[in-house]
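Annual report, structural modelling task.

Input specification for the 4'-deoxy-4'-aminopyridoxal-5'-phosphate complex:
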Amino acid sequence: MFALPGANYRCMNIGDSTVFARGCFVKYDDARVGLLTHGLNYGTGCFEGIRGYWNAEEGELYLLQLREHFERLHESAKTLLMEIPHGVEELVQLTIELCARNGYEENVYVRPLLFKSAEDVGVRLLGVDDAFAIVAVPFKSYYDAEAGLRAGVSSWRRIDDTMAPARAKITGTYINSALAKSEAQLNGFDEAIMLSFDGHVAEGSAANLFLVKRGVLHTPDASQNCLEGITRRSVLTLATSELGLEVVERPIDRSELYAADELFVTGTAAGIAFIKSVDHRTVGDGQLGPITRRLSDLHQRVRTGRDPKYRAWVTPAYAGRKVSAAG
Ligand code: PMP
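The model returned the following structure:
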């Protein structure tokens, strides 16, 4: 479908990188939005966060669970009464071409974004033009996962689905995460754990939460207003299929966190990161626990295309070729 001409091209900075915006491949610096853009002022948009993992031995960039992310993006768009001008398979191909055009030889983060693009005053969803873009940037790690996270329960509750859709990735609702994360950092923690409106554990600021107790894996069920994370789903699959663990999705109380043997968060940006303390209480012995380690090692193999059984979870971006130039 897409022509893939030319020699290798490696972006030196984000402004020179190639993005996909409003139907064309253009330079990042040429894809601008105006100050009155509806999505910028009112948070009327939805997005995804996708990771690509560089496998140096193979000279390949593996994009993790592309289809799942684009399916969720379509669901978020539907919730916002918006429409993405590309189907899931087309979005997969566009992302492959975008990565190939940029030719990154390192881990990347891919950000598809659908937003209300009209430069117009008035809060509403209907009758306001949309625009769609995909950006890919080099990405290092989100946390220092080796060190473990110090988490604190936030005074900000996770948005309830009766207030704004909790299971859609909506730009505006991320103020909830930003407030919780910032409060946690100001209080000396690395990460926030948000409770739901009725007081059960919901999730981290941008990651799902798991608890290990006596060899059983527990995570808040989907009715706890957490985003139904793609990494969460993968971890549930790997835990049952590969580690033979019992997994339970259920409401979890705050004080269960203090008595957990292991705690960890999962997310596309976060990966699998262990929590070493919650509200100043050490989790287990404060070290990376055995179940978290096994899941993390397994996930690491899968996402870099090194596990043949889970090859279908990754899409090679280069498959032997890279392309050049915006246009
Ligand atoms: N919860 C929230 C609020 C998030 O922003 C994210 C990151 N997308 C997650 C959970 C984890 O979801 P995923 O594994 O799909 O990245």
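The chain has two domains: 14-140, 149-310.
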